[in-house]
Write the structure tokens for this entry.
Amino acid sequence: MAEAPAARGASFVLHHHTSGAAEAPPLERLRTSAFAERTVIHHSDQGDSVRAEPPTELLVPEADTAVHVCGPDGFMTRVVTEATAAGRPPGQLHTERLAPAAPPAAGDEVATEPTVRIASTGIGHPVPADRTIADVLTAQGVEVELSCEQGIRGACPTPVLDGEPDHRDEVRTPDERAAGDRITICCSRARTPELLLGL
Ligand code: FES
């Protein structure tokens, strides 16, 4: 994604977000690339995440610029949310999935705007299509544990007491998914209109 604009002399900054410094091989390629000086590497396990500190370029919309984001669903949702809140119009936002979204199983419905209900309070929180469950809960002051916010480290699995998760992370095993008793709230959604969370 970066090599093509670099080859034609385009002006850009590449922000590469990882869950941790252990992801050495791809980082080494970036550090030795022709655009190494225009590459900024962020590690979530060091507190350097899009949520903690969005890149400045993301938050300063200019007429002749655009944002291209590639990654897991939760990560892309966070980037698009931050950029939209900063005033970037949809036409400046381009997303590319790492892999096709898993299609719903035959006969399954996917709730586009599910409600997550907190068991300890009984309060339900609607989750708009452009926000994650984690986003909604933290905005409502519900304490949740987060790390990568990309569905790749497994820091946020949250107990599900009722309802069926639509798993979109990359860390849960098939057996864990089938059990349906926990959900990675940074990226997953729901197949049922409501999820009751053990929070
Ligand atoms: S915060 Fe990393 S998997 Fe959800």
